[in-house]
Design goal:
Blueprint (H helix, E strand, L loop, with lengths): L19 E7 L3 E6 L4 E6 H7 L8 E5 L11 H6 L7 E6 L3 E2 L2 H24 L4 H14 L5 E2 L3 E8 L8 E6 L11 E5 L3 E6 L2 E5 L1
Parallel strand pairs: 4-12
Antiparallel strand pairs: 1-2, 2-3, 5-8, 5-11, 6-7, 8-9, 9-10, 11-12
């Protein structure tokens, strides 16, 4: 910030690197926005917003991309996200990491499946139906819906900007601007470029095929 006691002069050079969350719009022209870095409300002209800021919420074009770069030089989503070398905002949808199940929870699922199988066989016997057919159906269900040792990660949408620009494992720390920041919460969350499903950046929505 510039000290208010300093007298600015013609020819001074200035720079700005700020992020905003629109709080309210007055008379469709004056925008009141929360200055993200200071957590204060500032008044900004709509013309300034349109001419000098970017948005993470809107896009003009949709482009289908692959995960990896193509042989013809077309960039994949990994390279596109890695290529963001600024604090420009974006919205990204990615799959969160899988969570290992506890031994107790895993065993409980196995027991439930066994009990379901035994119940189905006993019912087939009581109704004098073919046990082999019931067993085939149960085993087919297990093959199509196997018991996994982990809980599959859910989709996660993050609106914010990068604060890490190099990574060895494909995880980049980003500021999630939808998380309220406190003394103990910086709002920083990792984005895994290997699980990105779509990305809105600089007016384009990239959708992973």
């Amino acid at each position: 910030m510039i000290n208010k006691n300093i007298k600015l002069e013609t020819g001074n050079i200035l720079s700005e690197c700020s992020h905003y969350i629109i709080d309210r719009i007055y008379d469709n022209d004056i925008i009141f926005a929360k200055h993200f870095e200071s957590n204060t409300i500032v008044k900004i002209g709509k013309e300034y917003i349109h001419d000098y800021t970017q948005t993470a919420d809107y896009y003009d074009t949709e482009v289908e991309v692959t995960k990896e770069d193509k042989k013809d030089g077309t960039l994949g989503i990994r390279s596109i996200f890695e290529g963001i070398h600024s604090s420009q905002v974006f919205t990204v949808c990615f799959k969160k990491a899988d969570k290992p199940k506890s031994k107790k929870a895993l065993n409980a699922e196995i027991e439930t499946k066994i009990e379901e199988f035994i119940t189905a066989v006993d019912k087939a016997k009581a109704q004098k139906k073919g046990v082999a057919e019931i067993a085939k159906k149960c085993f087919g269900d297990i093959i199509q819906n196997p018991i996994l040792a982990f809980e599959e990660g859910e989709d996660r949408i993050l609106r914010g900007y990068k604060v890490q620009f190099d990574s060895r494992d494909g995880r980049y720390n980003c500021v999630d601007m939808d998380i309220a920041r406190t003394e103990k919460e910086a709002g920083i969350r990792p984005v895994n470029i290997n699980t990105i499903k779509w990305l809105i950046f600089d007016g384009i929505k990239y959708i992973v095929e």
